[in-house]
Amino acid sequence: MMRVCFLSFCLLFAAPIAAAMPGCAPGQDEKSCMMQAIWESAAGFPADKRDRLKTLFLNTLALSGDTALLAEWEGRLDGEAAPQPHYPDYLRERAEAELREADWNRFLQQAQAGLPPFNIGRPELMAAGARLAPDAATRRRVTDAMFALAGPPQRDARPLEDFERGDFGHVLSELAMETCDLAMFDRAVQLTVEPDGLRYAFWRARITGNAAPLAARVRSGGNGQQDTRHVREALEGYGAILQRGYCPA
């Protein structure tokens, strides 16, 4: 009887401990822990899907500049990070060309009216313009115009009913993550089609300064052997932290 009670006692208290294990322990090297969690979340995929994720995984880790950790993972996965080819930044080039032809007032007028070149890819082109802004006030003018064009969040709308709103939400969230603007991020992410998405959770964690608790979500989020989106979103989200570091406290 005592043995049964002791076993029940152990199981009762072991369950919360086991549940906490998937996270990154305090003081543990975050990069090692998080990359381990991301790769473990791919464990259920067939070998060919894991093979296709290897290069993306290693390229993401390479953003950190941690050559020792990268070499360790290259050995474990029997692969190498592949240098990314340099592609022209067409959006930046289009925004620069538009600004050469006109001032910021004209840039915003054209964007708000949806006139060429803003008739295609308007959210992304306006975001490129925001990154070219010469000062914070001009950048704010552009992002304010983007919020106005997106309109308020529509929680009951189907994803394809207003895809431009979702695109505005995505690029505005990215701009806010880059500039460490938490209030803007929390406003922008509500415009996206997946406000609670893992990518955005990592982007928000870059601003707030602690992604370690997300390791548990990464490990538990794999949903079968077909959809690799969970892993790709984790890599894209954490990649921003590896590349840029955390925002100043």
Automatic annotation (TrEMBL):
Q: Which UniProt keywords apply?
A: Lipoprotein, Signal
Q: Indicate the secretion signal residues.
A: 1-20
Please state what the protein is called: Putative lipoprotein
Q: Which species is this record about? A: Hyphomonas jannaschiana VP2
Q: What is the lineage of its organism?
A: Bacteria, Pseudomonadati, Pseudomonadota, Alphaproteobacteria, Hyphomonadales
